[in-house]
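Quick one:
INPUT:
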């Protein structure tokens, strides 16, 4: 018997199996979610500055901040309080080291893009060294499978790395 003949004779069976397949597919997709962040560090040695942008899932960050703050956080509203919460999160979870010196990054703010947020940081008057280490453990305490893609761009030369919880650092040598 062909599939079309079988389906025409028992459409309820097909509908039930199709519904079960959809439910299992949905449950399977939510049972193994992916938690991914992207961090880009851009260094211009002539200008002696470092610019950092970090993209994270907004819901993941809101969950993390809500647990820390003990109240619901809505990052879709860019407020001074949200800026402060994100500044603390970034300062504790993201570091850049140039040579052997840890760089003090200033939090500039954030923007919302669909279901993500972009956080922006910078440092000025940085002495050049060909070795850059970026450490990022943002959301590691929240998600065991958190992954970060780190891109380091020095004077236009781009290098990339991937770290997965519990890995925290990537080193780039130019």
């Amino acid at each position: 018997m062909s599939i079309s003949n079988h389906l025409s004779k028992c459409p309820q069976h097909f509908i039930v199996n199709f519904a079960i397949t959809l439910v299992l597919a949905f449950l399977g997709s939510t049972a193994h979610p992916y938690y991914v962040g992207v961090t880009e560090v851009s260094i211009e040695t002539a200008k002696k500055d470092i610019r950092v942008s970090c993209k994270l899932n907004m819901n993941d960050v809101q969950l993390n901040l809500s647990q820390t703050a003990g109240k619901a956080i809505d990052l879709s509203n860019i407020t001074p309080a949200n800026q402060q919460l994100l500044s603390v999160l970034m300062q504790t979870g993201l570091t850049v080291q140039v040579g052997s010196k840890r760089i003090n990054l200033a939090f500039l703010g954030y923007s919302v893009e669909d279901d993500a947020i972009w956080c922006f940081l910078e440092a000025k008057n940085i002495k050049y060294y060909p070795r850059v280490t970026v450490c990022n453990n943002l959301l590691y305490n929240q998600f065991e499978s958190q992954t970060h893609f780190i891109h380091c761009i020095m004077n236009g030369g781009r290098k990339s790395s991937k770290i997965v919880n519990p890995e925290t650092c990537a080193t780039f040598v130019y």
